[in-house]
Model the fold of this input.
Amino acid sequence: MKLNLKNLRSSTETAEIMAAFDSPLDVDTEAYLQRRGFSDARTKAVGCMNWIWCQWLQTAPEGKIRKRVEAFIDRGMEMQGKSSQFYMRSRHDLYLLHCAIFGSSRAQIRKLAERVVDSSGYNGQKPKEQDGVLYESASCGMLKYWILGDRSKAAQEAEVVWAAYRDPSCRGATKPLVSPWVAGDWDAFVKAQQKDFETLWQRASKDGIAKSTKDVAVADVSGVSIEQSWCWAHCGLALLAHREGVEVATDPFWFPPHALKVVGPET
Done:
């Protein structure tokens, strides 16, 4: 399929501004973290996810992506250590972990996984179900324990995910995608991937964001809301599987093949 993209450059520039890649963790940022929690940090992580997706679409050099993402993750982990506030911590951790999965080394992903929250909460604070925090925390926990090699505990966290309320502003992966992923049923996972891509194209066409035929697709990158419309959680599951040597499905727009080249199966 030939892919024609609109507003890729402007979307990349917007994502860079949101992520604030080159801004150090200064006194004002630390004060905000201590006073207001992780709302601004979450926004930065959304920007980073968006920037990585734009780099995949541009087939940017792997080294360029890795260098910038790993520095971003280092700053994010530093932020985690600067605040005991729970506000937006689970959403920030979930997005930050995906940034790492998309572009960091295996060692850094594991280091971050050890630090992110799970369904038990953080610093004595329990996640509430009604505001979506339990869903986000358990989603973090599912990835956390899968990365750390405790697949049984990852499955337990997944069960909490399905029982919890999801805030509509945070579009996680669907159960038909997650269940075979947790079980290691990779044939079923790839089939679920392909179905999800079809759904994404249908929704984007309905919303006027993209349209496709058998041979050509036209898509407006700026029309995709990263948190709500892009399949960031789907991509995270697929890349973790790919890092373990699993052959996963890709899509020229939603999950470009270049994403696999960026991380490689062993890095």
Summary: Strands lie at 2-6, 210-212, 216-220. Residues 186-206 form the longest helix (21 residues). DSSP finds twelve helices and three strands in the chain. The chain has a mean pLDDT of 95.
